[in-house]
Design a protein that fits this description.
Helix content is 59%, strand content 9%. The chain has 886 residues and is an alpha/beta fold.
Length: 886
């Protein structure tokens, strides 16, 4: 019962002990309490109860009872870090037990061997136990043994064998009422899905297991360890570190298992390293090494040493000693049959290369490169990274580019199994080294065109295909509705009382976690199409023609390289350091914030001077070669907040911004939907009242637009030859209660133009919860992803709507980038706080240009020029950018 209904089992055992039972029955009761404390409570209390259970079994003169207790005690001692004593208890248990009891003892010793990382011994004990358990028709223990054997197979990389055992165990569990074991089986299937490379399925199964454990009221430390592994593979290292540290604190709070603490420290160390926090990684890994060594867990100690070496390298401590240490770790991992062995060989080779030890590097990298032909995606990428480094050391630029291409193809296929745009974006971080190697090789040997191809190969790849549409999941839909209502109530409480409502905000965060969790479960709908690999420079140059210039900024080793495309050629110029440009951009943002308020006119010359410095850092000598025509800027993700219209050479131009040249081409080739339907939305609580919206509605008063059919417009990806042209007919006006999220989404779907005046809120901690405030609560990025086709053009007239989070290799998450893959060809949005009143004339002038048939970029240029010359209006114009090509 202790694994079917743990709380009830504990209560029954305590009740039995209060009834003066016989030694035999008292032994069982103490053993049950010991198991509960061992797995869900205080290890010290567990040991006390189990020792008492053994004494009572001896008094009852029951060898079988004593053998069973000794096995439970052995597990507890090992989890407490007393490995030698635990194995000695098992020796006595195997000697005392016979037949069926001995098989159960052997199964538990096999579990301990797995905990210790001694997989050969674990498989041997399971091999001896399973036939006896089956012969005794012991369904529960047979299923446990098969589950354990599957888990050991996974640790050794034998995924197919693991799947067979998990399937057999699951069939047995279905015939029992062992709820805790069933939850454990779901958790194990999640681990198997992860090992086979299916991250969404792994997240879904681990979340299901957590729900099952929650119903039983049992802690989930092993589940936390496994979820951290999946989160790290999904690019969510910061979240993995937070979960691991939280679990460590909870485990310490109850005096829990020392073995679990060591494992949590190991995943925390790995997460900290991936999150760019090498000092935390060093501290966690060093403590994990000490604990594993004391527990005699060589397998785990070796993995912890690998992370420790990685952290030392990340802090700049590369040395010959670390090469030797990494090589020794690689040898031990290979001897264990551990899948992490190639990572250690790659690390040894990378350190050796940095020291100029080419012969040693080649030896280690050749070993690591073997993994490129098989195994899960990340293992193959490790192999291709090693192969690329080998080619670079040999001076073969062609070899580097081929290895990088193959490795990034693996990543593309992996990314397309992920349905959630967030996971796709974050997964690109795993290809950053390959992309950087390819760019360096291109710079040395291939000229500007090849550098452009490789800059595009990994830039804004998440925009190359629409995300998987969220499923018609009633639970997800109801959760999003509940989140919206709660967020509206929390906002109302803040507005009325000026203070947050903690209970509402806690519930809001819980609902956010549930929404995010369910969206991360979505699987992708296809394999990578290699779109980035097929980028055609010639086609780009044809579309640019002689007048238009596209400026793509590539960053190599911290320096900005300007790739100037136009007039049938690509030229390269060196500009400034990225770090300096980022600092200057922050100064500009601070200046624009101040200029949003009257009385800060004295700041205007300072902001303009900062714009000139930004121009020098970002464009350098390329600024003199832009010609007189329109310009498209393609910045790296870390420069997404630059107000490009502030740069002197761009200030009076038709200017648009795009996350990549590829996405600009797609936007250029996107045809506007038929009908020219326009939607005007005015949300609540705006300082200006969204004053431009009713004026725009009045400007186009006329016959109503045609009634909408129940069917959403189909996406049309045909090419167009020119702009969208003037828009005719009365727009759909949504304000007051009509500006609700469901109604707004219904009208936005397939519209030709949408203008939304609503409070924007950017969430740096969770970009896909960035929102626009509607009458019934926030309209979030997840809502937009439900559209069949987002508006062809969309104007977001309020603050911070163009703010984005830079994640992965060079990806951006936020409102604008959510719209671009869904059919939107052009967006006007704002990257800084602005003066609400000054926005109104800018928006009216912008629409005047659109009515005349101009593009968004053309209309925005003219609208800026039409504004009054004071500092507030100038800053407002600079803060808005046109994205895309419509």
């Amino acid at each position: 019962m202790v694994f079917a209904a743990p709380g009830e089992a504990l209560a029954r055992a305590e009740e039995l002990l209060g009834a003066d039972p016989s030694p035999l029955h008292a032994s069982v009761a103490h053993q049950v309490i010991g198991i509960w404390q061992r797995d869900f409570g205080d290890t010290r209390r567990a040991l006390a109860h189990l020792r008492r259970a053994r004494e009572l079994a001896a008094r009852a003169d029951s060898a079988e009872r004593e053998a069973d207790v000794l096995a439970t005690l052995g597990v507890a001692l090992v989890h407490a870090g007393r490995t030698r004593d635990g194995l000695a208890a098992f020796e006595r248990g195997v000697a005392r037990g016979t037949g069926h009891t001995r098989a159960r003892v052997l199964y538990r010793r096999a579990y301990v061997w797995w905990v210790l990382g001694r997989h050969g011994e674990a498989l041997e004990d399971v091999r001896r136990a399973v036939p006896v358990l089956r012969q005794a028709d012991d369904v529960i223990w047979t299923a446990r043994a098969l589950t354990l054997r599957a888990t050991v197979h996974l640790a050794l990389g034998a995924v197919e064998r693991a799947d067979a055992d998990f399937t057999a165990a699951e069939a047995l569990w279905d015939t029992t009422g062992q709820e805790h074991d069933k939850a454990d089986a779901v958790e194990s299937r999640g681990l198997a899905a992860f090992r086979s490379g299916d991250v969404p399925a792994a997240l879904r199964l681990l979340d299901e297991a957590e729900e099952r454990y929650a119903k039983l009221g049992t802690p989930t430390f092993m589940l936390s360890i496994r979820r951290c592994e999946v989160l790290m593979a999904a690019g969510l290292a910061t979240e993995a570190l937070a979960e691991a540290d939280g679990a460590i604190a909870a485990l310490d709070g109850i005096g829990g298992q020392s073995t679990r603490k060591a494992e949590l420290l190991l995943v925390a160390a790995r997460a900290a390293r991936l999150a760019g926090d090498p000092q935390t990684s060093l501290a966690r890994a060093a403590l994990a090494v000490r604990l594993f060594a004391g527990q005699r867990r060589t397998w785990y100690e070796t993995h912890a040493r690998l992370v420790l070496i990685e952290a030392r390298v990340a802090t700049g401590r590369a040395s010959g000693r670390l090469v030797a240490d990494a090589a020794a770790v690689a040898e031990r991992l290979a001897a264990f049959g551990a899948p992490a062995a190639p990572e250690a060989s790659l690390l040894a080779g990378r350190i050796a290369l940095g020291l100029g030890w080419t012969a040693d590097a080649e030896r280690h990298l050749a070993v690591a490169a073997r993994s490129r032909h098989g195994g899960p995606p990340l293992a193959r990428m490790t192999g291709w990274a090693a192969q690329a480094l080998r080619a670079r050391a040999a001076g073969s630029a062609r070899g580097v580019l081929e290895a990088c291409r193959r490795g990034l193809d693996v990543l593309d296929d992996h990314r397309m199994t992920l349905g959630a745009s967030e996971l796709r974006a974050r997964a690109t971080a795993q290809g950053a080294e390959l992309a950087a190697l390819a760019q360096r090789a291109s710079l040395v040997s291939g000229g500007p065109r090849r550098l452009l191809v490789w800059s595009e190969r990994w830039r804004a790849t998440v925009l190359s295909a629409p995300p998987t549409r969220p499923p018609a999941d009633p639970v997800l839909l109801s959760t999003m509705t509940a989140f919206r209502e709660l967020a509206a109530r929390a906002e109302e409480a803040r507005t009325d009382g000026g203070r947050p409502a903690p209970a509402l905000e806690r519930e809001q965060r819980r609902l956010e976690r549930e929404i995010r969790s369910r969206t991360l479960h979505m699987r992708g709908e296809g394999r990578g199409d290699g779109d980035g690999g097929r980028f055609d420079v010639g086609r780009l140059l044809d579309r640019l023609g002689d007048e238009l210039r596209l400026v793509e900024l590539a960053v190599l080793d911290g320096r900005v390289h300007v790739l100037l495309c136009g007039q049938g050629r690509v030229r390269r110029f060196e500009a400034g350091l990225l770090a300096e440009a980022e600092r200057e951009a922050e100064h500009v943002q601070a200046g624009l914030r101040r200029l949003a308020h009257p009385g800060a006119e004295a700041r205007l010359p300072l902001v303009e001077a900062a714009g000139a410095r930004l121009q020098e850092l970002l464009l350098g000598p390329a600024a003199a070669h832009l010609g007189n025509g329109p310009v498209v800027v393609v910045p790296p993700g870390r420069l997404h907040r630059v107000p490009w219209a502030l740069l002197p050479v761009l200030r009076d131009r038709v200017l648009s911004v795009s996350p990549s040249a590829s996405s600009w081409l797609r936007a250029k080739d996107t045809a506007p939907p038929p009908g020219g339907r326009r939607v005007l939305v005015r949300g609540p609580g705006l300082a200006s009242g969204g004053a431009e919206v009713p004026e725009l509605a009045d400007r186009h008063a006329g016959p109503p637009p045609p009634a909408r059919s129940g069917e959403s417009p189909r996406r049309d990806t045909g090419a167009r030859s020119g702009g969208a042209g003037p828009l005719d007919g009365r727009p759909v006006l949504l304000e007051g209660d009509e500006a609700s999220v469901p109604r707004v989404l219904r009208e936005l779907d397939g519209a030709a133009l949408a203008h939304i005046a609503a409070h924007g809120a950017f969430r740096a901690d969770s970009p896909l919860f960035s929102s626009l405030r509607m009458a019934d609560g926030p309209l979030i990025v997840h809502d937009f992803e439900r559209l069949d086709r987002s508006p062809y053009r969309i104007i977001l007239s309020c603050c911070d709507t163009a703010r984005l989070a830079s994640v992965g290799a060079d990806e951006l998450l936020g409102l604008v980038t959510a719209l671009l893959p869904l059919g939107t060809a052009g967006v006007v949005a704002c990257s800084a706080p602005v003066n609400d009143a000054a926005v109104v004339p800018l928006m009216l002038a912008l629409h005047k240009g659109l009515d005349a048939g101009l593009s968004l970029a053309e209309a925005l240029r003219d609208a800026r020029a039409a504004l009054p010359g004071d500092a507030v209006h100038q800053a407002t114009g600079w803060a808005f950018s046109a994205f895309g090509a419509a």
